[in-house]
Amino acid sequence: xxxxxxxxxxxxxxxxxxxxxxxxxxxxxxxxxxxxxxxxxxxxxxxxxxxxxxxxxxxxxxxxxxxxxxxxxxxxxxxxxxxxxxxxxxxxxxxxxxxxxxxxxxxxxxxxxxxxxxxxxxxxxxxxxxxxxxxxxxxxxxxxxxxxxxxxxxxxxxxxxxxxxxxxxxxxxxxxxxxxxxxxxxxxxxxxxxxxxxxxxxxxxxxxxxxxxxxxxxxxxxxxxxxxxxxxxxxxxxxxxxxxx
Length: 245
Ligand code: CTP
Ligand code: MG
Prior knowledge:
By secondary structure, the protein is α/β, with parallel strands linked by helices. Helix 2 runs antiparallel to helix 4 and helix 4 packs across helix 5.
């Protein structure tokens, strides 16, 4: 069996949190609805997770699923059905609602991927689904920290004095997708609480239950659009990949 054939007894549903307001982007419309080459970042992210046929459905958590401003879910050019649901007021709450919906639809596993990460390479997607469905601990994409790390008493503004240099060995930057047994992830988010500030990703919720998710090699280009300069990078990569296809 090749790694992209459906695994027996596995039903992987993707959950895409897309209900944020993108305050750090300071743009008039939420970043997931910014367009590059005529497509929204959300559409690129949906197409990216659908590149592996083991994903059987995509569930997108948005602020208002009935809004006429949303692209019609049938217009996404993917083989899998796309369903909008109502998100929450934290990312974890949006994910929780998506995972609840996925479990109700028979998902054995959920793959959570940020709408704001449109440059996910297919090879990384396949790797994280392979590992996440093979281990009961689940798996996440991550990249090793490249830069020197400093701790200061502020996380914004400049001219703060360095308190400490932090050894970057063994430190990783977590990305999405993150793939887990669906019911376990739901339990983890509910136990930890979807408004718990420590719940910054799905791996944290699984660790809360005692699982040790596996780190799988991610990709530098799988950056999350957070600030305007991220959007500039992502837009140039997306346009370059469209012209070389
Ligand atoms: N998200 C969500 N529901 C929320 C908050 C965030 O579905 N209540 C989604 C965002 O739409 C995004 C992903 O979670 O796709 C990652 O979150 P983040 O980068 O923090 O996006 P925003 O919260 O929109 O941005 P900011 O924190 O700058 O306001
Ligand atoms: Mg946010």
